[in-house]
Specification:
alpha+beta, 4-stranded antiparallel sheet, 3-stranded mixed sheet, 3 helices, 7 strands, elongated
Length: 127
Amino acid sequence: MLQTLLADRFKLAVRHEARELPVYALVVAKNGPKLRAAEGGSMSSGPSMLRGQVPLSELAHYLSPSLGRTVLDRTGLAGTFEIKLEWMPDEESLFTAIQEQLGLRLESTKAAVDVLVIDRAEKPSEN
């Protein structure tokens, strides 16, 4: 319904496209994961913390905005895990916290990412 409204009012035309972009791959660290299996649940977040019981693909989704890049789960670990991640932006980086607290690490790489491309947009029509 919203897409129809934007197309009618702004003549908005968009499309999805896969582009090769810098991403972070969430992988298992050298000493192995420090994760406990858990039942399904949800994730809560704050300025410098993430807590919950989620699959690692969802953890990757939550990390993306904090890192400014898409994070992809490349751990190969299936299931739901208990996540308790806290970091102090001035003292300890998120990268270090992920490795020390979860036994995972982030690798910088490139991958095909789905992006929304705006082909056309005009000033809104009068009511």
